[in-house]
């Protein structure tokens, strides 16, 4: 399905009436939930709403040069739909094409309502329903649903993290953040400085290097950067020998295991992992390059996410002399560039502030239960997909140490099982309840990255034991979510005779 055919097939009128499940977000998580509902709960009505003008979430929002996945698509893709491109590390357009295929195959277009922003949601225990306020083109209106599913991702779509730099007003060139990349930005033959050392910076630099006069990655401190083949020889070989689904299943399982092995190696044997990464970097960079200054972080591998560079493209740009790395602190911006604390000046026509994201739980939706505003940060997260004391609300939140979608699939499948269980037993509500008020807690996002630490207090907490822990291990979640029971002792099921509602959605 193309963008044009999607726009022709999706509804043109605002969403009205009632649906069994309202999915907020038409990115990889929301479309995945749509598939699982259509396949696993065909009697349920549902709609997918998104505030943006297109599906795809992250992959449509970010338009900077080279935007690509930092996980292989055999694990970042859906379990139910094989990834058949030769590229395991895929650019945004390939991923969007894949998502459009999912929309087509699951007949989701008729359920997708774009430019529908969710403002707030209020749950009524009396009716066992959510009343959801949406905004479309300045008009606010309400719909009702039995379940609300947050597929909003975890960052703020309104804008990225953008620190203020002294002297910005003096700079005569262009300052741009990757999350707000101008379509008409001309960087041909220009001097470019990219502030940052994370996944965005290491993507931008090789993508722009051939077109600019020179591009510099300016970092306050280094990140771990590892080359990774853009094409997976094992996956592509298996597709020649096996049917697509079988080849994909084998590749997916192998890559899950490989990713887990690398993560555990880094956590359990950090000195060995450091040596391996250092050796790889030395071989990939020019002879005499100061690897210890520019690519040797102070923290251990996988205390923060590793930056993957497909086919060593960043290092190749440095070798060709088109890109360089400077590790220093900014004193101030000047008319012609950036003055560093060392006294050195970096000349620039364009400065790219790849300084990170702003995180935002549940897309900033205000949630109330019986008129009481709920603060997610005061609650505990249940099995990584529900929040204590909030009924009939679920959300998708992927892994920080492996492919996001691995967890999303397990969560969506588990929720569909939970919906089926409630239907069989006549339940209309379910809410996670913490029985132990003395339970030890810690942040839900137990990750050292700066963008996480800036917003960690906004998110729910996790507990130390039981269903209140947040697992960052696919196989632990596989046992808990796919194989585990849905009638957990921490859940309180209830029955309420809901008011009769007229559905505006046709059943699948």
From TrEMBL:
GO terms for molecular function: flavin adenine dinucleotide binding; N,N-dimethylaniline monooxygenase activity; NADP binding. InterPro entries: FAD-binding_MO, FAD/NAD-bd_sf, Flavin_mOase-like. Keywords: FAD, Flavoprotein, Monooxygenase, NADP, Oxidoreductase. Its cofactor is FAD. SUPFAM superfamilies: FAD/NAD(P)-binding domain. Belongs to the FAD-binding monooxygenase family. This is Flavin-binding monooxygenase. The lineage of its organism: Bacteria, Bacillati, Actinomycetota, Actinomycetes, Mycobacteriales.
């Amino acid at each position: 399905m193309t963008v044009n055919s999607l726009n022709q097939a999706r509804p043109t009128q605002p969403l009205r009436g009632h649906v069994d499940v309202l999915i907020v977000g038409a990115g990889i998580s929301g479309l995945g939930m749509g598939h699982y509902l259509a396949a696993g709960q065909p009697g349920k009505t549902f709609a997918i709403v998104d505030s943006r003008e297109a599906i795809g979430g992250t992959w449509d929002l970010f338009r900077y040069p080279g935007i690509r996945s930092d996980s292989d698509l055999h694990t970042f893709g859906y379990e139910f739909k094989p990834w058949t491109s030769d590229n395991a590390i895929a650019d945004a357009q390939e991923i969007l094409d894949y998502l459009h295929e999912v929309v087509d195959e699951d007949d989701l277009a008729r359920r997708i309502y774009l430019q529908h922003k969710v403002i707030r949601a209020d749950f009524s225990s009396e009716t066992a329903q959510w009343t959801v306020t949406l905004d479309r083109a300045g008009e606010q209106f309400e719909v009702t649903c039995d379940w609300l599913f947050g597929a909003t991702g975890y960052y703020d779509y309104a804008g990225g993290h953008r620190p203020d730099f002294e002297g910005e007003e003096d700079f005569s060139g262009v300052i741009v953040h990757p999350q707000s990349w101008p379509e008409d930005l001309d960087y041909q033959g220009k001097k470019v400085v990219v502030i940052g050392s994370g996944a965005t910076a290491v993507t931008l630099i090789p993508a722009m290097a051939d077109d600019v006069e020179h591009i510099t990655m300016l970092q306050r401190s280094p990140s771990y950067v590892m080359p990774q083949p853009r094409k997976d020889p094992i996956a592509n070989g298996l597709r020649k020998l096996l049917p697509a689904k079988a080849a994909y299943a084998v590749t997916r399982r192998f890559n899950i295991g490989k990713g887990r092995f690398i993560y555990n190696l880094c956590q359990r044997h950090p000195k060995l992992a450091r040596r391996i990464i250092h050796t790889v970097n030395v071989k990939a960079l020019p002879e005499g390059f100061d690897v210890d200054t520019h690519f040797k972080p102070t923290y251990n591998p996988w205390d923060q996410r590793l930056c993957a560079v497909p086919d060593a493209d960043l290092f190749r740009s440095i070798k060709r002399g088109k890109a360089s790395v400077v590790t220093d602190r900014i004193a101030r911006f000047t008319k012609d560039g950036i003055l560093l604390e060392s006294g050195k000046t970096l000349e620039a026509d364009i400065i790219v502030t790849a300084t990170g994201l702003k995180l935002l739980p549940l897309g900033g939706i205000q949630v109330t239960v019986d008129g009481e505003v709920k603060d997610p940060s005061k609650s505990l997260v249940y099995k990584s997909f529900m929040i204590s004391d909030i009924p009939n609300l679920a959300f998708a939140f992927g892994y920080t140490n492996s492919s996001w979608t691995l967890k999303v699939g397990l969560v969506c499948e588990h929720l569909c099982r939970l919906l089926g269980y409630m239907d069989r037993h006549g339940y209309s509500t379910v809410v996670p309840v913490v029985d132990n008020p003395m339970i030890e807690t810690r942040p839900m996002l137990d990750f050292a990255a700066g963008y996480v630490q800036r917003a960690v207090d906004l998110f729910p907490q996790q507990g130390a034991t039981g269903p209140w822990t947040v697992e960052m291990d696919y196989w632990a979640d596989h046992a808990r979510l796919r194989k585990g029971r849905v009638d957990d002792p921490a859940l309180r099921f209830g029955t309420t005779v809901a008011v009769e509602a007229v559905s505006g959605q046709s059943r699948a």
